[in-house]
Automatic annotation (TrEMBL):
Record lineage: Bacteria, Bacillati, Actinomycetota, Actinomycetes, Micrococcales
Top-rank lineage group of the source organism: Bacteria
Domain UmuC residue range list: 28-149
Keyword Ligase part of the UniProt annotation: no
UniProt entry keywords in alphabetical sequence: DNA damage, Nucleotidyltransferase, Transferase
Record-listed E.C. numbers: 2.7.7.7
Organism of origin: Microbacterium hydrocarbonoxydans
Molecular function per GO: DNA-directed DNA polymerase activity
Gene Ontology BP annotations: DNA repair
Protein name per UniProt: DNA polymerase IV
Amino acid sequence: MTSPLRVFALWFPDWPLRAALGPPPHPPTALVHANAVVACTASAREHGVRIGQRRREAQGRLAALRVLLHDPAKDDRVFLPVLRLIERHAPGATLLRPGLAVIRARGLARYHGGEAEAASALLGIITEAGYAEARIGVADGPFTAELAAHGSEPCTVVPAGRSAEFLAPLPVQALRDEQLAGLLTRLGVRTLGAFAALDAIEVRDRFGERGARLHALAAGADSRVPAPRPPDPELVRAVEFEPALAGADQVAFAVRQTADAVLLALDAAGVVCTEVRIDLTDDNGQVYSRSWLHPTCFDAADLVDRVRWQLEALAAESAKAPVDEARAFGGIVAVRIVPTAVDDAAHHQPGLFGSATDERLHHAVSRVQTMLGHEGVVTAAIAGGRWLADRQVLTPWGERAVAPRDPVRPWPGSLPDPVPAEVFLPPRPIGVESAAGESVGIDGRGSLSAAPARIDGARVQAWAGPWPIAERRWAADGGKKGHRLQIVDDRERAWLVFCAGGRWWAEGRYR
């Protein structure tokens, strides 16, 4: 069994406010973006100001509330010195977002004689540097460690293998998915423990890959060491400069096309990058490397930002170094972007069908459509109908999907949700046999001649039905009719099949 990945999570509460206002205490203040509160001080929360409130509502709760615009770039710049401080005492610190960094616990814990001792020592260093509000969580995996750091104690250690127990009483809002949390709350599922108790297959069918991943996190599965898909060496992109470029903005501007090339290579491979290493080579031949993590996945702008941050950090270190120790940091002659951890793109695109798509996805899909032709990329929409083939409408990317049949109208005999993820067009022949090896039949009353025992060469584990379906019975040919069954085999495949004219056909398959 794989050992849990123990990590330290260093969390700095209300970091955007610390970056904007300096060390606490702060007067009642709120940072807003797009006319909504994205951060607020503890003194403002005491008067009912909350993250997500509209600006007018927050000011209605506290007339003396100070309102400032949020500057994410400043959050990043101000956190870089803190990250350098952490790295001097705990090499390998990885930035998840400004105000949150994670470190593998094994080496640090061995050096200090234990996880609690290491956390206490690291917290003392950070507090001495002027960050008394910092919190440290130690747990199996970054997700659990971050939530442990959110506790009231300066340091919280979750014992190995106890992630599920620690997470169980926390609210589902801890998953940071407002849409899923709202739906689960309406269904009466209000804690991570209740969410984790749901059947994993049913969660995947209902919420897709992203829902399945969040379900695994709620169950403490983040405690397992990830086995990322090894990145393809062809995903690496590099650019050289002649003459060397000295300014961070110059290099960032020049590397934009390289970042776009990395994203195109990732899109072509059907993956996204969750961890990247950036190698900077100066005109003295010195190579400066650093790894960066992203909470979801990198886009081109994120890669350019990391190059700029890395250059600004190097320039700051060179400027602060003593004269007798200062190293000659020359201009940059090459930048190399190396994806070091990738994940399936399907896990990171919840809005691909059925909701608004972001600009990055639209840009990437449009490029693919240019290569494959107008109908090479299509989107799916649900239409009305009794058969799965009638309910699926495929529209070329960029065009408005128009359902030929209203899905809201009643369609007697249609299949209720969830519908199969895979639809066979046309339906494929399939064998449904009894224990005696004979084909199962259906009589005029809709009764099976025998219980299904085998399907497509596999043993039947469970089945439901049959349900009659018929349409256009007034037509000269009698219309289309049959009887449906849902069957689960011993390979954990769920089939939707129907019998028509004495033969069995696979209409779809659940995933």
